[in-house]
Amino acid sequence: MAAATVQAMYYGGSTGEPSTGANAETGIKYNREDTQLGTTAIPIPTSAGTNYSWFKELALSVTSTGTTTLSNRTIARSSAPPAGLIMYFASSSGYVQPSSANRPSDTSTGDDAAPAAWTALTTSYQAYSTESVGSSSGRNGGFAKTLLGVSSTGTYTGGPGSAITLPNLLIQYDEA
After folding, report:
1. Given this model, what pLDDT does residue 175 score?
2. What share of the chain is helix, strand, coil (3-state, %, to 5)?
3. What ranges make up the beta strands (E) of 48-168?
4. pTM score, whole prediction
């Protein structure tokens, strides 16, 4: 069996499905726009509550085919984010264009509250796409929709629009 060459890709904006996506390994910025590196800041709540970014869709893409099958795609974060920042994920088999209309609603209660249908990312790998897919070129398996929440409990410095370093997102899969 020949292994495939696989890359983490960002899908959104002009790179959304059905295009090939953009290299996510160069980074993404959580914001309130449908771009990989946008600058529309997520406002910091001034009282109890959590404000959310627009989601960012990530998926694996086969860049060099093999004779194997990929399955059991999982996602984790490399470490804890700064206090008051919460990273979430949700599974999606099909692409959904991010917009203000489908962003989780900000909440005025419940600091660090997970929006409905979203799961907090941890340092333990969590499944987002379990399907088995041959290693032909292009997107392989479902999407990991990712989201950032900003709560009023943050102790980080700066403010809206500040560049805050987040943990790396780690994607793992089985290949057989």
Report:
1. 93
2. 5, 40, 55
3. 50-52, 56-64, 69-77, 85-92, 119-120, 126-129, 133-134, 138-151
4. 0.90
CA angle 52, 55, 59 (to 5 degrees): 150
Give the residues across from 22 on adjacent strands: 10
Q: What are the boundaries of each domain within the chain?
A: 5-175
Kindly give the pairing relationship between strand 85-92 and strand 138-151: antiparallel
Q: Using alpha carbons, select from 102, 144, 141 the residue that is nearest to residue 119.
A: 144
Of the candidates 65, 10, 17, 58, which has an alpha carbon nearest to the alpha carbon of residue 175?
A: 65
Please check the confidence at residue 160 and state whether its pLDDT lies above 70.
no
Higher pLDDT, 1 or 50: 50
- Residues 52, 106 contacting (CB under 8 angstroms): yes
124 vs 143: CA distance, rounded Å: 18
Residue type, 39: T
- Number of Cβ within 10 Å of residue 83's Cβ equals 12
DSSP 3-state of 172: strand
Q: Which amino acid is at 166?
A: L
Cα angle value 93/96/101 (rounded, 5°) = 140
